[in-house]
Design a protein that fits this description.
Layout lengths: L9 E6 L2 H4 L17 E9 L11 E5 L4 E5 L2 E7 L5 E3 L3
Antiparallel strand pairs: 1-2, 1-5, 2-3, 3-6, 4-5
């Protein structure tokens, strides 16, 4: 099993699919055009040793366009730099 570790102030996160994040309790027509939110959120899986503001398990919000995707052997890992985290919901 490969172990992927975030480096250089990066936070490794688990994100939900866009469908999960955009679910609405209101039924809309299929052709209804919703604007994509400029922010996305994810759960922190691990952090580089330089990160001090968020911990594993925290939910973090950051600009959608700052999400980094890394493909390692067909498996995707998601990262964001610590300084792009706008807000965090602490688990402790």
């Amino acid at each position: 099993m490969k172990q992927v570790l975030p480096l250089n102030r990066r936070v490794m996160i688990s994100i939900q699919s866009d469908e999960d994040q955009e679910k609405s309790p209101i039924l809309l027509p299929e052709d209804y055009n919703t604007e994509e939110s400029p922010h996305i959120h994810g759960t922190v899986l691990s952090t580089s040793s330089e990160v001090g503001s968020v911990l594993s398990g925290d939910v973090v919000y950051f600009p959608r366009h700052m999400l980094e995707t890394l493909d390692v052997g067909g498996e995707e890992f998601y990262f964001v730099l610590e300084n792009y985290v706008v807000a965090a919901i602490k688990t402790n």
